[in-house]
Amino acid sequence: MNASRLIQNLREYLEQIPLFLLTLPLFLLVHIEGDYRHLITYRFVYKVILELIVAPFFIWGIAYLAIRNYRKSALWTLLFLLIFYFFCDLKDWLHELSPGYFFEKYSFLLPAISVILAYASIEVKRSRATFKKWYLFINILLIIFIVTDCLRIISDSPLTKNDLGDRKKSVSFNYSACTDCIRPDIYYIIFDAYTSSKTLQTEFNYNNQALESFLQEKQFFTVQNSKSNYNLTPFSIASCFNLNYLQHFDPRKKIHIKEYLPGLHSVFASELTRIFEKEGYEIKNHSVFDIKKYPTTDSPNNMWSIDLIYKRHNIFRKINTDIGWLIKKHLKIKGVTGNDIEYIEQKDLHYLKSLKSLMHTAVTPSPKPRFVYGHLVLPHLPSAFDSLGNKVPLSVEPLNEEENREKYIQLVNLSNKTIKNIIDSILLNAKRPVVIIIQGDHGYLFRDTSKKELEFANLNTMYFSTQNYSMLHDSLSNVNTFRIILNTFFKKKYPLLKDTSYFLHHK
């Protein structure tokens, strides 16, 4: 068979077969892989991926029952799939273009889409065209898109592309270990979304004096006007562990799951553990993050909801994520959805597991100095715990602001008891000098945008067994934490950075 005949046969095939029902979801998956290569844990997302692959054929079957022509029904299915897969991108684009206008709201978009699909169904069914040119064009276009993305994946270097910090790792690369320092055990313990005592008093009418007095009795230095540098966890921890602000990150961007993933990678590839390796430290990671060479001892499962990067390409899941709670409210359906329950169960289970691991580390002797990173996902909402650590029935989500605040205070009470137990255990079992740092990675996440500055106010308290708090001051932010530790205990002279907070618009 000569080349021209082969090309002709291929053309006829592409004019006849609705290959686009397979290549469109394939293009979507390949494109996501190209953007987030090495950032996706596939055991968390394979079910959602399967939905995206099966959807075209399920929709095609339904369309065929209405149109009774496989070629016409396939073309109508393509139109539906463009909406099915890319509705979220359309809605986000309209929101960025004209936030608050009627045409970016569900009350307009969903009826408009329904009218378009109904009209397209009637017109396609009436048409006598064979749609050969359409088939050929769409099939070839999607093949080109897939090949282009495959080439991008082969030639790309995502391990550095997705790192929001210093990709040269200048601080850790140039770091020299101290030759004559007394190396303390260092405990860095995050209580997720724990706000400052001042904010608890002014915004929640809650007096946190019991914890403050306990910390003072234990000779902690509490930073009264502390602020986080970012109001979302991955970026806050990444900046702290990289000893710097995130230079490859635009804080003006609205944060969706696809922006979260590079934040996770920037913790994974951060500089701090490399520095402590050079100082001869044993490193224990009891957190919600994996760190290079030190995966978390307490797997967070899908706590970061990585599957959202695929769910956003399913119009029904997108609607459920955004307004599912409102639909349930109007239909008077009570209780949380299966996805909500699963998330809360995973979050609360991780708290129990990471606390158990942290306490075990505190009572277990080590021949080497240790850097211990514990990250407890309280008092961050939502949670099924009450103030005593008992499980309570789950309410309809989201709660209103008053209920949110009441629940948050319950979790603050539980966190305070946990903080006291951790500190007592560490100090009682310490075999060498010790540093204990307890921080909120950010504060309470307010629904009222006028209070956005308060989202940075956080708990920030430190214990140095040397009682040398000379470098600490009352307005310290998290990014300077380990610059101070290295200067105080390892004879370094890192300048402190200007304490700045970047508000991230999260969705």
CATH superfamily of the largest domain: Alkaline Phosphatase, subunit A
Q: Can you count the helices?
A: 18
Q: Could you please say which CATH topology of the largest domain applies here?
A: Alkaline Phosphatase, subunit A
CATH architecture of the largest domain: 3-Layer(aba) Sandwich
Quaternary organization: single chain
Radius of gyration, in angstroms, nearest whole number: 27 Å
CATH class of the largest domain: Alpha Beta
Largest sheet: 6 strands, mixed
Low-confidence stretches: none
Total strand segments: 6
* Total individual domains: 2
Order of helices and strands: HHHHHHHHEHHEHHHEHHHEHEEH
* Residue share in β-strands: 5-15%
- End-to-end separation in angstroms reads 56 Å
Average pLDDT, to the nearest integer? 90
Throw out a few tags for this protein.
507 residues; alpha/beta; Alkaline Phosphatase, subunit A; 6-stranded mixed β-sheet; 52% helix
Provide an overview of this structure.
The structure is a single chain. With 507 residues, this protein is α/β, with parallel strands linked by helices. The protein has 2 domains: 3-156, no CATH class; 188-304 and 348-489, 3-Layer(aba) Sandwich (Alkaline Phosphatase, subunit A). The chain has 18 helices and 6 strands. The protein has helices spanning 3-16, 20-36, 46-67, 70-97, 106-126, 132-155, 158-161, 170-173, 197-204, 209-217, 233-241, 257-268, 272-278, 308-311, 315-330, 338-363, 401-429, 481-489; strands at residues 185-191, 221-222, 282-286, 370-376, 434-439, 460-464. It has a 6-stranded mixed sheet with strand order 2-6-5-1-4-3, with helices on both faces. The longest helix has 29 residues, at 401-429. It is elongated, with a radius of gyration of 27 Å. 36% of the residues are buried. The mean pLDDT is 90.
